[in-house]
């Protein structure tokens, strides 16, 4: 049917072209016959072609593209490869054979070569110096970058040891091509002793003792004796022998150290070497502990015994930076108030105790007032400049509703959800009003009505921070929190952050430089922040800020901060592991400003903690994906294994589509040539 239509279309267009040419040239008498026939033919073809372009149906075109199978060749470049090599393994021979395999496969396939450790990089790398192994990154990269591609096979050369990322067996579940694993390393344990793990707190308090637990492991070392020692800059602090009683030995050694100096302290933990052990690199670890000059004292002064008092104490003491003392109004001493960094007045002043002396003593100290049925609201209102409360002494139940525009501190979404469902607090009934600008964290919901009455509010009063919790019954929240979640995390978070917010001291320095964190991991970018304030304490970043970073060996690195918003930011890149001091300086007007600090970079030793290859995992990975596990000596057979797999084929893609002839540019130029030839011929013979 389509062929018949095209035939009659061509015939009709040709007749139209002849008719047009006849009408144009029938009266031409001055042209010779040969030229006339030539011009007649040109015009006929031109008109017929244009007419056919207007009426011709689309033509179906078919294009074919071929895609060779892609072979992913991934080489493990982590340090554990070089650490534990079988006696028969020769690194140079293996490298030569793997490159030969890459060249052989490239003749028939498209080979993508990768190296991996902490990250995945293009090309083969045989330095074996990566500090971490993340096998799952290889599979994620294949899944992301080669989705819907013709992957013929994945070749993974590794010792099977991974210390970062997920389990490769599960992370590779999306792979559709067979996986061939090359089992490197030695799966037979060798003689070695090592520090497998150190458990410790990053923070200790000056003149206090703190605990460290050192995990010791030994393989094929039965009967040997080593010595475990811990030292700091002053010398050895702890030492004891470790008698290895079996070929596979594990023990955890607890020890207690004293925090003698303030600041970041370095402790070196070492196991003395035994004869003929595999490596001594895993015999030592360095830890850093920040020693803080004492904890901040929080004093809770209560009008009378109340379960809220215990609730506050338990939640605040979760944070080790705070030491909580509880005293009753009639027994609190002047010395206790003097030492307090934050005071919590629970239902003080009360109807039975005006607490005038206490209120006088806490002036200038951050204070949290907790109101309840026993509170004397008149004296309370006159004792601070944040909140005024007129009450007859009656109470009401008030649910807590979080204000969305509260930014004094952050509360996790989980805690926000829980707070909405907690039971109401017992709040004094009356008229509430802010005396001075304040920040409302919670408002009261009475029944189903959400009011503007503050339940938890913060503000400034005579250069101190003041908070008011207008309700008692926090102890019920702790019970409900435990009933729902089997923990007290929501209430602990709320109260500890409230105390932290009230007790935090404003930093009045006009030039501040501080690291993003005190302790960085090796191979992690070092980030420093800087802030500069003018006399009105407005943040600005007009002048340049330079910083010098120096390690303990005296090597110095100089940087210039970049401007970020109204502040400064420095990405110092990756620096070697160790302790660093930094000093920054800038100049604003005629004033010079300086700031200093320190940070540490922990050496990553995960690759030295496990030295026995995990060939079982490599075998399971290959079987799961229909491949095979081979050893380095069998590399020459791998190309034939892949060729023998019938599923590894070149894929041909066929693209079919309909195209209008008028879209072809060559037809335009053909018509232009025909018309131009006709015009020039007529022009030459004087017919135009």
What labels would you give this structure?
six-stranded mixed beta sheet, alpha/beta, Rossmann fold, extended, 16 helices, 27% helix, 688 residues, Immunoglobulin-like, nine-stranded mixed beta sheet
Structure description:
The protein folds into 5 domains: 2-58 and 660-684, no CATH class; 67-187 and 613-644, 3-Layer(aba) Sandwich (Rossmann fold), CATH 3.40.50; 192-292, Immunoglobulins (Immunoglobulin-like, Sandwich), CATH 2.60.40; 296-503, Class I glutamine amidotransferase (GATase) domain (Rossmann fold, 3-Layer(aba) Sandwich), CATH 3.40.50; 511-602, Macroglobulin (MG2) domain (Immunoglobulin-like). The model has no long low-confidence stretch (mean pLDDT 88). Helix 2 runs antiparallel to helix 16 and helix 11 crosses helix 13 (489-503). The relative contact order is 0.13. The strands form 7 sheets. A 9-stranded mixed sheet has the order 16-15-17-18-23-22-21-19-20. A 6-stranded mixed sheet has the order 4-3-2-5-6-34. It is of the alpha/beta class and 688 residues long. It has 16 helices and 35 strands. It is extended and about 135 Å long. The two termini are 44 Å apart. It is 27% helix and 37% strand.
């Amino acid at each position: 049917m389509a062929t018949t239509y095209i035939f009659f279309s061509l015939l009709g267009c040709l007749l139209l072209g002849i008719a047009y040419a006849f009408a144009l040239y029938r009266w031409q008498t001055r042209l010779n016959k040969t030229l006339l026939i030539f011009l007649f033919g040109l015009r006929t073809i031109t008109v017929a072609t244009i007419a056919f372009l207007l009426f011709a149906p689309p033509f179906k075109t078919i294009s074919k593209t071929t895609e060779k199978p892609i072979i992913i060749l991934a080489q493990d470049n982590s340090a554990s490869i070089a650490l534990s090599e079988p006696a028969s393994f020769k690194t140079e021979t293996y490298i030569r054979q793997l490159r030969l395999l890459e060249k052989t496969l490239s003749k028939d396939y498209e080979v993508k070569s990768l190296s991996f450790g902490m990250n995945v990089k293009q090309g083969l790398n045989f330095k074996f110096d990566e500090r971490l192994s993340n096998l799952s990154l290889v599979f994620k990269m294949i899944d992301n970058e080669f989705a819907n591609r013709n992957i013929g096979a994945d070749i993974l050369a590794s010792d099977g040891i991974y210390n970062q990322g997920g389990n490769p067996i599960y992370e590779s579940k999306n792979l559709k091509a067979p996986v061939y694993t090359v089992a490197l390393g030695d799966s037979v344990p060798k003689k070695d002793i090592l520090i497998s793990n150190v458990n410790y707190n990053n923070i200790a308090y000056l003149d206090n003792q703190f605990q460290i637990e050192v995990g010791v492991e030994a393989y094929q070392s039965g009967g040997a004796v080593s010595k475990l020692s811990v030292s700091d800059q002053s010398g050895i602090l702890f030492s004891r022998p470790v008698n290895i009683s079996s070929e596979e030995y594990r023990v955890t050694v607890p020890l207690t150290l004293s925090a003698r100096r303030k600041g970041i302290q370095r402790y070196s933990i070492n196991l003395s070497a035994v004869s003929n052990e595999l490596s001594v690199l895993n015999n030592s670890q360095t830890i850093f502990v920040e020693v803080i000059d004492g904890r901040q004292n929080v004093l809770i002064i209560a009008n009378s015994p109340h379960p809220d008092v215990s609730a506050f104490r338990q939640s605040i003491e979760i944070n080790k930076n705070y030491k909580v003392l509880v005293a009753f109004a009639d027994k609190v001493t002047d010395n206790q108030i003097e030492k307090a960094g934050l005071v919590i007045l629970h239902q003080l002043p009360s109807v039975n105790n005006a607490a005038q002396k206490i209120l006088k003593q806490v002036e200038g100290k951050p204070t949290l007032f907790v109101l309840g049925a026993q509170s004397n609201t008149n004296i309370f209102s006159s004792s601070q400049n944040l909140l005024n409360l007129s009450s007859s002494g009656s109470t009401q139940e008030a649910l807590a509703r979080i204000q969305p525009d509260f930014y004094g501190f952050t509360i996790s979404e989980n805690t926000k959800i829980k707070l909405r469902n907690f039971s109401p607090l017992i709040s004094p009934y009356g008229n509430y009003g802010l005396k001075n600008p304040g920040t409302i964290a919670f408002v009261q919901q009475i029944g189903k009505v959400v009011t503007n009455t503050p339940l938890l509010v913060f503000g400034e009063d005579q250069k101190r921070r003041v908070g008011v919790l207008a309700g008692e019954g926090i102890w019920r929240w702790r019970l409900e929190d435990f009933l729902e979640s089997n923990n007290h995390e929501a209430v602990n978070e709320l109260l500890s952050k409230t105390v932290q917010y009230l007790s935090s001291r404003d930093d009045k320095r006009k030039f501040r430089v501080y690291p993003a964190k005190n302790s960085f991991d090796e191979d992690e970018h070092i980030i420093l922040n800087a802030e500069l304030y003018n006399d009105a304490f407005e943040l600005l970043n007009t002048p340049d800020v330079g910083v010098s970073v120096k390690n303990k060996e005296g090597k110095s690195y100089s940087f210039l901060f970049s401007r970020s918003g109204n502040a400064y930011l420095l990405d110092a890149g990756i620096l070697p592991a160790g302790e660093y001091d930094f000093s920054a300086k800038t100049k604003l007007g005629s004033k010079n400003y300086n700031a200093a600090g320190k940070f540490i970079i922990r050496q990553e030793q995960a690759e030295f903690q496990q030295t026995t290859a995990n060939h079982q995992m490599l075998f399971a990975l290959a079987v799961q994906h229909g491949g095979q596990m081979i050893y380095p000596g069998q590399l020459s057979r791998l190309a034939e294994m892949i060729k023998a797999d019938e599923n590894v084929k070149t894929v041909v893609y066929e693209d079919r589509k309909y195209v209008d002839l008028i879209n072809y540019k060559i037809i335009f130029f053909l018509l232009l040539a025909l018309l131009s030839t006709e015009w020039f011929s007529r022009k030459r013979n004087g017919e135009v």
